[in-house]
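> Could you send the DUF1508 domain-containing protein prediction when you get a chance?

Sure thing. Input:
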Amino acid sequence: MIAVAARKYRDYGECRGAFERMCGDVGELTGAVHHTSEGSGWVWRLRDPGGGAVAVSSRAYERHSTCQAAYDRFRALLADLGSGGVIPWGDGG
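Output:
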């Protein structure tokens, strides 16, 4: 698992639509690596233009550099998926 949604969605369709928008809008999203709330590791958060979190790391990392690399890979994945116009869900939907 790479990331988890930072928001709750009513159903699969709503979540899937939000992910597709996130892929298309990745250039407008900001994010950063932060200490965990307990201060014993690092997590990343991706935020929309209004500052609301849209995705967060699925786990805490021991090292800042490892967390930063995971964040950078996630952003690259979103950009790659968003650049194709259609996300290959594999379910025909």
